[in-house]
Design a protein that fits this description.
The protein has 23 helices and 22 strands. The protein has 636 residues and is an alpha/beta fold. The chain has three domains: 141 residues, no CATH class; 121 residues, 3-Layer(aba) Sandwich (Rossmann fold), CATH 3.40.50; 327 residues, NAD(P)-binding Rossmann-like Domain (Rossmann fold, 3-Layer(aba) Sandwich), CATH 3.40.50.720. The strands form five sheets. The protein has a nine-stranded mixed sheet, with helices on both faces. A seven-stranded mixed sheet has the order 3-4-2-1-5-6-7, with helices on both faces. Strands 14-17 form a two-stranded parallel sheet. Strand 3 and strand 4 form a beta hairpin. The longest helix has 32 residues. It starts with a helix and ends with a helix.
Length: 636
């Protein structure tokens, strides 16, 4: 019977033929009931002719209501309404035909009214009933045909989203997911049924279903479920060795409809220990529309997503600047395909090259600059401090100075929480960049009352799935069978998703008036060891029994905990609860400019100790951790 499962749609003529047979049979039944099954009375009335007439009339009405065109195995309320209209209009048609026939043509009706009523009611019941039987037959066959590949599942959420997910699964002939029950936290729903499936409550119900029915999979289908509750559900699934999936956000399927293919496995991004940050500020549209916007580091994780989000605000020109050739080429192709109406200019270049950057500013005249270009890998920059200083400090100065020279309206520096009490060269170089643009903004504010560039700094922690994140590393290690390497069992980090980070950069960029460091509420820090364990379980492995976790020790410059504020910084609230402004101490622009310019003279002397020592002078809170540069702290 496997051909029934593979059979997608029955031809309309077959459904029309079955419906005709049902109408004819129900008309015969109507005659039999009307005459109490007495053969003598039945013989006096031409029941075959009457039944055939009722069938023909029903077929004519069916051509207008199109009730035979519905896909039977997807039969639903709207299809039932079409069947009802067919029967109703058939009844009305024959009722009036009976009236005219009896009054003007003959003393007999085409069909006795009693027969018409019985035939119509029985036809409605049988037309709906056989469709429901066929629908359930498909579900039954699909669920039981290939037991070895079958997933016995439950849906968490006995509401509208759960019912839609259930229907989406049943509509898909390829899925092997057999829904045996629903789960819900609402005590009022416990013990009741929807779509023929019983509703159980919470974790206790899940344990019972695992024992009784051998449940292997769970789909989370609840709108606006809190992250805390989602984590609890997923932890229960991990404990019971159940695979867990989730339906996409409502806005992704509300218009086009949810399909079984859209139901996806839970990702680590879904398990942040806080609610996702969602922004919708109409001022972003006002500030970015019809502007020439430059994004540096455009092909990076943050830069590329920033470009995509900016494209939605209809900029006059979007300049994509990066030194990485292949990723920039890929980004250009992505924009040509997905944002054909967005005017872009791709520039392959190095932010340290002042001459080239000057040509860019003079020819394209950007009005807003989002500076996301940076070297950010901590161990790598600890090995090559001259590169970190050259790109993150000198490169930032080049762009900032040119922004002032060419009267850029706003300059947004994308910084990092590693700039707070830095323990590594990368973090200290980003802190130096923060200090320079802040001092420059103060100088312009005091000496140029009008038309000066506003410098805004945004500071946030690690970004999930970015090229510098542990997530891609862990995924690769898990795919290779392990081990998963964690530097220290107690190491923690703040995390946010790439879209969240870019939303906040744009929000801070348009609300910032210059001089402040905008920090983002990233919730509670996440323990990297817990992150690794969850990723292993999400991959379907049974934790460390299949994938080992190894501790490798802190890397050069790495610290256990990250912070978002220095001790000398105070916080000011903003209009958005997720964004705060760090008020930093004023500093002398000329002093910092001189110190940064010294790097330019020292960069080619091949003395990394001298470079890092000068960086420690510029950023006095920079104390090296687990690094060969720690000796410089002892010498001071």
């Amino acid at each position: 019977m496997s051909f029934l499962v593979q059979l997608k749609i029955l031809p309309r003529w077959i459904i029309a033929t079955i419906d005709s047979f049902v109408l004819f049979t129900c008309a015969l039944f109507g005659y039999l009931v009307r005459f109490n099954f007495e053969l003598s009375e039945i013989e006096k009335n031409d029941i075959l002719s009457g039944s055939f007439t009722f069938m023909i009339g029903g077929l004519l009405v069916m051509q207008n209501t199109r009730s035979h065109e519905g896909i039977v195995r997807h039969f639903g309320f709207r299809d039932g309404a079409d069947v009802f209209k067919t029967v109703l209009f058939t009844f009305i048609m024959f009722f009036f035909l009976n009236f005219f026939h009896g009054e003007f043509l003959s003393d007999r009706f085409l069909l006795p009214n009693s027969v018409l009523i019985i035939s119509s009611l029985s036809s409605l019941v049988m037309l709906v009933f056989y469709r429901l039987v066929v629908k359930e037959l498909f579900i039954y066959l699909k669920a039981g045909l290939i037991q070895s590949e079958q997933k016995i599942g439950v849906i968490f959420g006995a509401g509208e989203a759960g019912i839609i997910a259930f229907e989406a699964i049943n509509r898909d002939s390829k899925t092997r997911f057999n829904t045996v029950a629903f789960l819900d936290d609402d005590p009022k729903k416990e013990g009741k049924s929807i779509v023929g499936k019983r509703i159980y409550r919470g974790a206790e119900g899940l344990e019972e279903l695992v024992e009784k029915m051998g449940v292997t999979d769970l789909i989370i289908a609840i709108r606006n479920l809190s992250v805390k509750r989602k984590n609890e559900i997923i932890d229960d699934c991990f404990r019971l060795n159940i695979a867990v999936s989730t339906v996409p956000p409502v806005d992704q399927w509300i218009n086009s409809g949810l399909t079984a293919g859209a139901i996806r496995e839970v990702k680590i991004e879904d398990l942040l220990s806080r609610e996702p940050i969602i922004l919708d500020n109409p001022r972003i549209q006002e500030d970015l529309q019809d502007k020439v916007i430059l994004v540096t580091g455009a092909s990076g994780s943050i830069g590329s997503e920033l470009c995509r989000q900016i494209a939605h605000y209809n900029p006059k020109l979007l300049i994509l600047l990066d030194i990485a050739e292949s990723p920039l080429y890929d980004l250009e192709n992505d924009f040509r395909q997905n944002f054909p109406d967005c005017q872009i200019k791709v520039v392959l270049g190095d932010i340290r090259n002042r001459s080239k950057m000057k040509d860019l500013f003079s020819s394209l005249k950007p009005q807003i600059v989002f500076h996301a270009a940076a070297y950010k890998h901590v161990p790598m920059m600890e090995s090559f401090p001259e590169e970190a200083i050259h790109v993150n400090v000198i490169g930032t100065k080049v762009l900032a100075d040119l922004s002032v020279l060419y009267q850029v309206e706003k300059f947004v520096l994308v910084s990092t929480d590693k700039a707070v009490k830095p323990t590594n060269v990368m973090g200290a170089s980003k802190r130096a960049a923060e200090m320079y643009v802040h001092a420059l903004n103060d100088y312009l504010e005091k000496n140029h009352k009008q038309n000066y560039t506003n410098f805004v700094t945004t500071r946030f922690g690690n970004v999930l799935a970015s090229s510098g994140s542990v997530i891609p590393l862990f995924k690769k290690q898990i795919q290779n069978g392990g081990p998963v390497t964690v530097t220290h069992p107690e190491i923690t980090r703040y995390f946010m998703t790439i879209p969240e980070a870019c939303q906040l950069v744009l929000e801070a960029g348009i609300m910032g008036e210059g001089g402040g460091i905008y920090i983002f509420d990233m919730g509670e820090p996440v323990k990297i060891l817990d992150l690794a364990r969850r990723m292993i379980k999400l991959s379907g492995k049974i934790s460390e029994e299949e994938i080992k976790i190894e501790f490798t020790g802190l890397r050069e410059g790495e610290k256990l905990y990250e912070e978002l504020l220095n001790d000398f910084e105070t916080v000011k609230i903003t209009h958005h609860p997720k964004i705060k402004i760090a008020q930093v101490l004023p500093s002398s622009y000329h002093k910092i400019e001189g110190q940064v310019d010294l790097f330019q003279e020292m960069i080619y002397k091949n003395s990394e100790n001298e470079l890092v020592a000068h960086l420690k002078t510029l950023v006095p809170e920079f104390i090296s951790s687990s690094s060969r540069f720690g000796i410089l702290d002892r010498l001071n």
